[in-house]
Amino acid sequence: MNSFRISEAAALLGVSDDTVRRWADAGRLELERGPNGMRMVAGTELVRLLGEESGGGALAQAFPLARASTRNRFVGLVTAVERDGVMAQVELRAGPFRIVSLMSREAADELGLEPGVLAAASAKATVVSIELPSGGDA
C-alpha cells in the first residue's frame, strides 16, 4: 500500500478529511489520481508532510515539557491509573494513541498521576516491532 485515500491519509496525519483537501487546494499536499479515478495521497507525500511537523506534534507544542534525549515522546492526558501494593498501571491517550506504562506505585504517587493529568510518555528501546495492517492491498 503506497497510496492512501483521503480519509486514510487524514487518519494517518491525525486531521480531518477536509483539512487534507484544504492542504491539497493550498498546495501543501499533492494529490494524485488512483486507477479508479479517486484522489489519492502517495505515502512519500505523507512522509514529507509529517517531517515538517517537528517537536512531537501539536500537543507537544501546546504543552511543552522538559527536554530529553528520547525522540519517541507522546504528550497526552492520563485516562486511567490502577494501583496495587507495589505497582501501578498508567494509561495515557495522546491523540489517537493509547499508551500503557507499568511503574512503581511510588513513582505514580510522586508524579501525582490521576485521570485528567497532562503527561508525556517516552520510549527509548533497542527493539521496536513494526507490522502491516491485515486486509490491506499490500
Condensed summary:
The protein is 29% helix and 31% strand.
Overview of the structural elements:
This protein folds into two domains: 3-53, Multidrug-efflux Transporter Regulator, Chain: A, Domain 2; 73-122, Beta Barrel (OB fold (Dihydrolipoamide Acetyltransferase, E2P)), CATH 2.40.50. Helix content is 29%, strand content 31%. The protein contains five helices and seven strands, in the order βααββααβββαβ. Strand 2 and strand 3 form a beta hairpin. The radius of gyration is 19 Å and the shape is elongated.
Count of DSSP helices? 5
Terminus-to-terminus distance: 5 Å
Topology pattern, helix = H, strand = E = EHHEEHHEEEHE
Structural domains: how many: 2
Task: Output the CATH class name of the largest domain.
Answer: Mainly Alpha
> How many DSSP E strands?
7
Low-confidence stretches: none
Helix content: 25-40%
CATH topology description of the largest domain = Multidrug-efflux Transporter Regulator, Chain: A, Domain 2
Radius of gyration over C-alpha positions, nearest whole angstrom: 19 Å
Q: Mean pLDDT, as a whole number?
A: 82
With strands numbered from the N-terminus, the spatial order across the biggest sheet is 6-5-4-7
The dominant shape is: elongated
Keywords: Molybdenum
Domain Mop: 67-132
GO molecular function, one term: DNA binding
Protein name: Helix-turn-helix domain-containing protein
